[in-house]
Design goal:
This protein has 248 residues and is mainly alpha-helical. The chain is 68% helix and 0% strand. The longest helix is centred in the C-terminal third of the chain and has 24 residues. The two termini are 15 Å apart. The model has no long low-confidence stretch (mean pLDDT 92).
Length: 248
């Protein structure tokens, strides 16, 4: 069962990853700009979900000019690897479905934050409610390995901790990071307080080390804005894997 589960998770991740470039192209804009509604050559983006779903290809462009945005193969490979890794660690537990649903959104948020230093509310806010509701459903199923109550408390604790960091240093921590921390806290809290601590600390350490490295190599200054969301997500992913393995 486990090898088949890993293969199915990887296939799902690859398919979901192929859909990342289109919303990435639409969302990767500065805060004062509206979401993109047309391809680089001005053709309106149409399709399912008001043009948000589908491959990053424009039917109105000429052959050879239809593709836009980032390479879909890279997004597909990355998403597939993450989904396969989570499936290997979690196994056939109900919460695996929740993690797999969150992975493409995490990849999308990472790419948007790296592109424009922004974590859009249109992604971060629904993720909080969705993660909480889905884990609540998972807790009712047999063989789940976590606690829904602790997951909710974990979201409040990690979100509150990041809010304090934001209030202390608004220039070093964006409010989008605070909203993202709510979802990551819910996910990490599911497996335990130690998992929450490890996942949160890993994200902070990774981000801090990268910032120090950029300053030391003079590729950034002390006041240079840096995308912190990707490190938060990476740390949380590591925490989930450790938590799932420990629960097994």
């Amino acid at each position: 069962m486990q090898p088949l589960l890993i293969v199915l998770a990887a296939a799902y991740g690859a398919a979901a990853g192929l859909l990342v470039p289109r919303p990435l192209y639409r969302l990767a804009v500065e805060p004062e700009e509206p979401w993109r509604g047309a391809c680089p050559r001005g053709h309106a983006l149409t399709g399912p979900a008001r043009g948000w779903l589908g491959p990053a290809r424009c039917a109105g462009c000429r052959d050879g000019e239809r593709d836009y945005g980032t390479d879909p193969v890279l997004a597909a490979v990355l998403t597939a690897l993450v989904c396969a890794g989570l499936a290997a660690a979690v196994g056939a537990r109900p919460e695996l479905a929740v993690w797999l649903l969150l992975v493409p959104l995490g990849v999308l948020l990472t790419a948007v934050d790296l592109a424009v230093n922004r974590l859009p509310d249109v992604l971060t806010l629904p993720m909080v409610g969705g993660a909480a509701a889905l884990l609540g459903a998972a807790a009712l199923l047999p063989h789940s390995a976590g606690s829904w109550t602790r997951a909710l408390l974990g979201g409040a604790v990690l979100g509150g901790a990041y809010l304090v960091l934001f209030l202390i240093s608004p220039s070093g921590m964006g409010f989008g990071d605070v909203k993202l921390a709510l979802t990551l806290g819910v996910a990490l809290g599911w497996y335990g307080w130690d998992v929450l601590f490890v996942g949160a600390l890993a994200g902070l350490l990774l981000g801090s080390c990268c910032a120090v490295g950029l300053v030391l190599t003079r590729r950034a200054g002390r006041r240079t804005a840096m995308a912190f969301g990707p490190f938060m997500i990476l740390g949380a992913g590591a925490g989930l894997v450790l938590g799932a393995l420990g629960a097994g």
